[in-house]
Amino acid sequence: MKSQRIAYARVSTQDQYLDRQLEALEKYGYDKLITEKFTGTKKDREGLNDLLTRVEEGDTVVVDSISRLGRKTLDILNIVEELDSMGVTFVSLKENMNTSTSTGKAMFQMMCVIAELERNMIADRVREGLQSAKKRGKQLGRPKLDNDKVSVAMRMYDSKDYTIKEIVEQVGISQGKLYKEINKRKLKDSQGGH
Length: 194
Prior knowledge:
single chain, alpha/beta, Rossmann fold, 12% strand
C-alpha cells in the first residue's frame, strides 16, 4: 500500500476556527485530514486516537504546529515517540521539524532528552512527596494517593523507558494494579477506536 500523508488539525473549543491550520496544511499537501475541536490537556481524544490507529509504517503525519498534539511537552513527545517507533515520519510546519531529516531527528532527540529529564523529575517529586507525607505521619487519602501513583505509573509505562518491575518499585504501586490500569485503558481504547 502506498504511504500516505495524514494531516491533523485541532482547536481547543467549539468557538475556535481551524481555517488558519487548514490553509497551511493544504499548502503542504495531504492525502487524509483528521480534525477535531477538543482541549489539548486531554490525551484521550477521538481524533488523535483515530490518527494513531490509522497511520502505518512509511506514512507521514503533518501538523501546523507541534502544540496541536497537546499542551504538555511530555504528552507531545510521547505521541511523536510513538509515531517514530511505528516508522512514521512527523512533520510540524511552524517549527520546521521533519523527523525524516537529520536536523529533524536531532531536534527530536534533544526534545526526548528534555522529556526524559522531566519524567525523572516527576518520579522524584512523587517519591519525595510520598516520603515527606509519611514522615509527617500524614494519612494520605487513599483514592487521591492511588490516583497520583497510577497517573505517574501510566506515564512511566507510556514512555516505554521503564520495565514493569522498575515502575512498580519506583512508584510503589502493585503489579496487579498497574496491569489492571493498562488493561482498563486498552479496553477503553478498543471501544473508543471504532
